[in-house]
Every structure is written in C-alpha cells, then in structure tokens.
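Many introductory courses stop at the sequence. We go one step further.
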Amino acid sequence: MVDLTPTPNNYDKSVNYFSTEVTDFSSQYGSENSISYTTCNLANESSIYPNYGDFTHACVLRTYGPWWRQAPSYLTPLRRTPKSFISQDYIDLRFPGALYPTKIEIYETYNPGTVVRILAYNDKCGVRWATLWSGSPQHVPAKSRIFSPPLRRIKFPTSLIRIEFCHTHVEYYTELDAVRLTGTINRPLRNGDSNVDFSASETEQLLQQLTLNGPLKSSSSENGNFDLLPGEVIQVILSYLDMPSLCAAAMTCNLFFRHCYDPLQYTELDLQPYWSQVDDHALDTLHERCRHVQRLNLSWCGNYGLVTPSGFRSFLQLCGIELTCLRLACCKFVDNSVMKIINECKYLQELDLHGCQRIENRGFTNILKLESLQRLNLYRTTVDVHSVIAIIRSCPDLAHLNIGSCTNINSVDDVAIELGRNCKKLKSVDFWRSRTLTEVGIHALADNCVLLEELDLGWCSEVRSASGCIVDLVQKCKYLRKLFLTANRTVCDRDVDAISIHCPLLEQLDILGTREISQTSVRRVLEKCKHLKLFDISFCADLDFIFVRECRKQYPHVSIKKSFQSTPAT
C-alpha cells in the first residue's frame, strides 16, 4: 500500500491504487454466495491480464448483446428517455485513498469495448458526482486490453469511482480483471493545461441549474408568436423534448414556462438518465409538476444518502396516486417504510425492486395490496418463500416475475406450484440460480402455465432431465420464445430433440455446459426452429469449434455462441 501522508517529497507525487472494494453494482453473472464470475473479483490486483477468454475469477455482468431487449420480459423505455443514455449496468469501486484522478486503467480480458462512462464521487460538498469521461461503445479486436481514456479534471479528490457499461453490441459476456486509479494528493495546477476541462459537463451544468431544482419564471413576454397556436398544439410539440430541453424551454418566456410546468407534461418521468443529480431536494421541487405522473423510473437514483426514505415517501404520498409503473432498481433508499407507502399505489401494474436489498420480509408483504400487478422484479432481493407465495396468491394477473439470485427463497418448488395455481397468464419467469427448484416445480409450470414465452432455468442444478420435466415443459408450453438451461449438466439429446419438435417459436436457447448433447441434436434444432436467433452451446463437450464454424456458415441467421478459455499469454 502506498503511504499518502502529505510530505514535502510526495505532495505532488503521482500514486496509483487497484480497487479494494466493490460498494455497489447493478448485476452480476455469478452467485451471491460465490466468487465465480462476481463483481467482487474487481476488488483486487490484476490476475488474468494479458490472458484473453472466459475465466471464473473475472468480474462478469448479467447480460450481453441485444438478446435481453428482444425477450418478452424486456421493460420498454419511458417517454422522454434520451437516446444518449445508453448505460445498462454499473459498478462502484472504492480505492484506499482519495486522489485527484489523472488516469484510470480498466483491465478488459474478454469482449472489451463496453465502458461508456466513468464518474467520480465527492462526499464532501457541492457536486456529488462528476463525469470523468464518457463515450460510445467500442468495436475493438477480440483480445485483452487496458482501457485508459482521457479524463476530465475535477476540483475534488475522490476514492469512489463508478463505471457504466453498455453491452448490446458485444458477441458475448464482457469480463473485467481489475481497475487501477492513478492520481495526485494535491489538485493539479491548471498552468499549461489550457486544453483540459476542469468543469462539469454542459449537460450536468444544465441539470443542476434547471432540470431538478426548477427554473425561475421567465420575465420575458416575447414568445415568437407561439401564443397564436392552440394550447393543445404547444403541449404536443413540447412532449417531444427530453427533460433538459423541456426545462431549458421553460426559461425562454412566460408562455413556455406555463406549458413546460404543466403536470400533463410529466405523466411519464424517467430520472434514471439523470441519477447523479437526483436527491431529496430535487424530488421536492418536482412535487407540483408530478401530480399526475403515471409511469416513474428512479432506477439507480439517490444512493449514498442522496435520497432518503423520508424524502421519497414524501414525494410518493403527493405524486403516487395515479402510478401504474414504478421502477426503483438498485435504489438503496427503498426500505420497509417506503414499501408501506408503495402499497397505497392501488393502480400499480409494474414494480421493479431489482437489487433493493434494504427491504426486509415484512416490507415485501405490502405488495399484497397491489392486486393489479402484472410485472414484478425481485432480482437480488432478500425476499423469502413465504412473502413470494403470499404475493402470488394476491396478484392473479401476474404475467412477469423475476426471482433470480434470491438466495433467501429456500423452496422455489413451492413458488412454482403457486404460480401454476394462481397465475394462468404467466408469460415470463426468471429462476436464475434457484438451487431449490426441481422437477416438481417444472411439472407444475408445464401443467398450468401454458402461455409461458420465457423461462430462465440457468444454474438451477437440481432440475434433473431424467425426470422428463424438460420434455414435459416444452410439449405443453408451445409459445416459448426464450429458454435458458444454462449449466444444467443433465440436459440430453432427448430434451433438445423435444425442443426442436415442440418449440416452433423459439428465438433464444442456452444449453451452456451440457455434457450429453450430440451434434445431430444441435443440427436438428437449427433446422427446425426457424425463428431461432441465439443459441449458446459453450462448453458442451462434444461440440468442438470445427463443428461450430460449420453451423455458423450453414445457419448465418443464428448467433451461435461458443465461449472458451485461453492458454496463458506468453
């Protein structure tokens, strides 16, 4: 460890650290109880680079490519979501000491090019988050690299860095080995740095001044003859503006101010793109504008104490009466007290609590009153089996459920049985890494949820092919478009042949890691499943790269995945 105590000899010295802690993240491929493919692997020095390939001790995020956006469970963006916001995942990294950043090195060891933004956190005062760098996803060669983009200088030292990712363009999962921060204890002088921007970005400044704190009413009466238009026409024109543009327009004249602050402009409000600017004060200034909000996205907002449970409760009590959609993914302010207010949103049809780990079991029981609920995302929460079953019994219209990586559910079979009994409209269910799901639960779904279009059974190791449950499932659920059987070592030719016969609509199939699959069965799926777009056959013992190349050539419309581990670099 480098000694950062300021002395005359090291005051301007450049020092560097590898990250030592992952303080927050949006998703991970690995299990909550493991270190394989988990984000915690970033809290260390480099151990993989310069090797390239699939390594279990790398950091791996949950998704890749366009496939999840094409699945039935995909959440469509809210109106006014800016096209410039492309981040899909994030990781927050803590470093041992606070530095003025001059360099960040991200060790990408598999499918690089997904980093799109890097931010620094200021826990003292003023701007809480400042963007160090932002850019587009990169199409780069398939080899390991150290990504080190030019950084915008900031006016404060930081020991907390956020990295945001967009991985819709990569062929397979991105893997990261380490992150290293280089900087100085003392703020660098600007002399000789005329080309370096020390200020916040233009968008950040606009958001700070306008979007969240609310503009002052313009004194100008000059409106360019817009007052000749009917108010309804002006409202339609303004509805095409994103949030910063809408607030900027409000500053131009009194006419626009009135229209831009009309609550009907805020029936859908997506604050996730502006998560770094959202705090209690920002929510307080939005009260008057959001009286009729129906769809609200606060995902990623308010962490590290910027939004408090009391601040959000106050906002929701005033603005939540008409809500039909509420997205709160990875919001640390969501606790039992917040859930108590959410249960008063009686029209709610969609609730996203992905990664909200401060909710205790009694908090989840507040969902029981949301009888109109159709979508519920509980990925990586602490919900237990009793709460999930109670929710299912109270929400018969539930069509989409995600309980992936919910380690406190000690009998997923019971959950599947209740879904079969109560949720006949079920279209998608995510059981990712549910180790207590067996053939009992699969048979219950097959017998009762015949409208299923998407089922993720990845890493559900107790689902046994020999029981016939997979064949039973695909014979009865003929609308399946996505089926993930990832890392189920028992899946065999009989299962894959049944899929080829009974799943004519199938678009995505993952049989990674299966040992009993032959080339003949794989070809049969490729031939008969005419809508197939994604087929992951990585680490299948009898399917070598020569065979995969032949299939890719013969079926170019299917993205056939075959991951690998490289030999050590020389």
